[in-house]
């Protein structure tokens, strides 16, 4: 056999999808046909260009003994400790010149070699197929020295027929992978560029008479309660479903009474497709997806997506996910009340879709297609509007649909993401509609809905969404008749997203609004020895988009962020409202299909945040959409004169596949009466003594009015006005945002460098009054601030009065006081918790008694920024002090200053100092989601206006 010695690399820049590959087909695991996983350690050689090495490595007997090794599935840039290059992050810019279909000469190329023994009992009949589930971005393949072909389409399966080439005993599989190819132009998703064989490689025996491709059609007629099953199969055979007594020939429909499949009730029936040579297990879910009355309906009912966009991500393995990680995603989603996933922006590993079928999630399966970088040239030369590329687009559409068509969870096919518009997309939509008329087609870029069955948008502001809900948005006639979803909204970058509850209210008010998918599931931080988690720029990329890649509801290690906790509360499938005064609870089943029989309800009553009584609450098994009023028992007597409140929880009544009995699904809280405010008679008078003033338990500096100590507690830094916060990603906003970005304005105004001018210190009859003016350099605007200290002999009260002076056109980041304590560790408070909350992210903040440590209060955003505030705090104790608020306040404590937090780029930049910095805030500005969406709604602005608030300090030791 002779191999070329001068390698031709033309295929790399060829727009065609590839050659030598088998037609796409359904992805399944056979019951009886043999398979051999070729995952594991492979020999690996990296070259700098596509044609640096000849083909001889693919030849039998090639000595790869000096080569390195990599793990398959995997990305070579995440292996070898940097020896194999490093990841590149760009959001939408191509990291190479836009010169389609050409790619740079510097084209990292990984030669992979795997020698394997064919098991001695490998069947000799039939054929064999070699399957690659995902290779980025272009692969050329040889088996035992014979070239099989080459392909592109990174997150799609590709198979080669290899029966003739397999040998008993030793076989040599050679795969050359190029990081860049013409296909890269179609794969400009907002994520790390990560070359490699990153999904499974499997050798599959194909027995004679075995199953080829098949298509399970399982519909449900909600008017009769019957399902109709028809399995079309390339190779004729029989289909059996024991639980339904079904035993029919392939191609033949059969109708029987069934329980339907929905995301809420994911009933799957086990079946078998048997041909002469093979048996394939089926997991059948009966459901009918339709566009009816301008609504997306499943089984005759309109559904509401409570969704999320999921990229595949693991902080060490990149997009090479194992089954347990996929399951963790699904379990976390179910436990947080999510019911839908958009597989942004490519078909996921097929096992993930099995899990969606099994646990119950609606899926928008998205094609591996994005050409976003062409927006930089007004979409000129966009491959989706260039017939030369259409075969590649159709190949991608077919590879998605054929691979995934047997999943009941998939209700929409999505053409791709951010690819502009063009004939190629239309061709894809036409092909998909023809091949699978039983599902709907999605694509966001098509605002006229020429090719789609839904009007889909991303990051539309609340007011526009409301307009669309009211059908006042105009548009083409076709669009006006379609339902609306936000395929992306609520950008979860850093602290946030804010405004979720406001969106949900709209979704639940207008029928046309069928929900949305938060952007996005997980922060794509890369585990890094020095930085903790790396983001764009940390690998020295010449072009990058920084931490825009860390915008998930879970941190890189999948710990839920406060955003996920908030989302869980906002999308509760049961709404629990109530009137604490008259003891009525109003329960509504917000689900589309399931009644409430899976849930048990519990009430508890708290006095000052401590539960004093609890019991179970009988709530009828309400049907979807139904509500009921339920009476609470008499509240416990108001003996202590404390603050009384009810908490009602909905818990899983039994274990489910995704959470254990007792898991809290939803809750509501309602006050029995108003909070009694602390009474505080100012009985003591300030006593000046040299350079000190004593007032009750406190000592002050007579010259500056600074608080020095309260009782035995030294105060490291006196409470003084603070308006600054380490701007969040949402404060800073995206550069292309046209609305005001307050994070930028605040800094321009100088709110991060306020100066405090002491006007006077006055020891009066019953108060020590310190008058200051707080303002930044170069500006006339300032805040006249008066601190009035009084004491009742044991405690100390601070009243802060703030009057803005000059022209304040911007809201304030925060308004409160900051002080320092030399030591504090354990923190206890009565107020909102357990997690952080801000004005427009506070739905999940539950009023109660909470305990944490100062370190435990920090939210580990990958790029450090304002975090960790607790809402509605009545009192807090830490470092020997107790602080009570009049009114309730926002509490934050950290071992570094706001300025240090602001300057940090990674968490590893933050080191604990010897002071615990405490912020007691009267107000905080909202969070919004302007890193890629609207800023906070006006009702969450912290306006610069006159304010007065008080704190009562006492010691706890
Ligand atoms: C939108 C993209 O579809 C998504 O992939 C991601 O980049 C997201 O934004 C931001 O994180 S496109 C947006 C810039 C309008």
TrEMBL record:
Q: Which Pfam families match?
A: Bgal_small_N, Glyco_hydro_2_C, Glyco_hydro_2_N, LacZ_4
Q: List GO molecular-function terms, semicolon-separated.
A: hydrolase activity
InterPro entries registered for this protein in UniProt: B-gal_small/dom_5, Bact_Beta-galactosidase, Beta-gal/glucu_dom_sf, Gal_mutarotase_sf_dom, Galactose-bd-like_sf, GH, GH-type_carb-bd, Glyco_hydro_2
The chain positions of domain Beta galactosidase small chain/ read 694-954
Q: Which Gene3D superfamilies match?
A: 2.70.98.10, Galactose-binding domain-like, Glycosidases, Immunoglobulins
Q: Which UniProt keywords apply?
A: Glycosidase, Hydrolase
Which superkingdom is the protein from? Bacteria
List the catalysed reactions.
Hydrolysis of terminal non-reducing beta-D-galactose residues in beta-D-galactosides
- EC numbers for this chain: 3.2.1.23
Entry similarity comment: Belongs to the glycosyl hydrolase 2 family.
Q: What is this protein called?
A: Beta-galactosidase
